[in-house]
Amino acid sequence: MKRLKALVVDDEPLARERLSRLLQEADCAVVGELSDGQALLQWLKQPQELDVIFLDIQMPGPNGMEVLAEAPSCPPVVFVTAHSTYAVRAFELAAADYLLKPVFEDRLAKCLQRLRQNLVRPLNPSELKTLLPPPVRFPIRAGDGEIFMELDLITHFELQDDHVWACRGMNRYVTRWTTLSEVEQAFPDDGMLRIQRHLLLRPKMVRGIRPATVGRVKVMIAPKVELTVSRAMTPRMRAYLRTEPD
């Protein structure tokens, strides 16, 4: 029986450790564990002997499928997700496979059997893009009407004078919302951080970080545009960006 070489990519340490342990118990060689999409993209740039990537879809920064769609080449992939919608999309592609969290031994065994029988092949970029969900959009005011803005273009939201403004760097657009809590409820999976009472940041849009006053940092979200993170939220901001304290 072929011993598969596997890479595990998941931002949740416990989920990553559990899957790696199950794979080793199933006589697979886990050649690496990664925690985000950027690390995977760097890993794929180096020639590696690999049979399969077990890939979490929802991770900080670019999600798993977005990374694969940009990768020059990639081995077969098994999508690991807590969201059945992604699983259905993966299942519709006969060449793909998926595991729903939490992963159990019997389902993993069936997946490994398919891999050993070469029933899971690498997906090309066009196939991967069919798995990507449509862009998330929301309305902003424009004259007497509204137009729709893609969430991925927005760096942060700001509460001012009982109105929530969607900000794209220095550009600001007024929305229907009147509280930042409404924005958080509208996009529960985006990972936004309330860095000030009136500021809601999308951390994946942060380009840089530097110290501010004692116990605080500033994050750069666009050229010459910085936001100050509150003292209470600075540790969480650092943890998200995986930076070392000064």
UniProtKB/TrEMBL annotation:
Chain ranges of the Response regulatory domain: 5-116
Keyword DNA-binding appears in the UniProt entry: yes
Keywords attached to this entry: DNA-binding, Phosphoprotein
SUPFAM superfamilies assigned: CheY-like
Any Pfam family matching the protein: Response_reg
Superkingdom: Bacteria
GO molecular function: DNA binding
Positions bearing 4-aspartylphosphate: 56
Keyword Zinc on entry: no
PANTHER family, A to Z: REGULATOR OF RPOS, RESPONSE REGULATOR RECEIVER
Protein name as it appears in the record: DNA-binding response regulator
Organism: Geothrix limicola
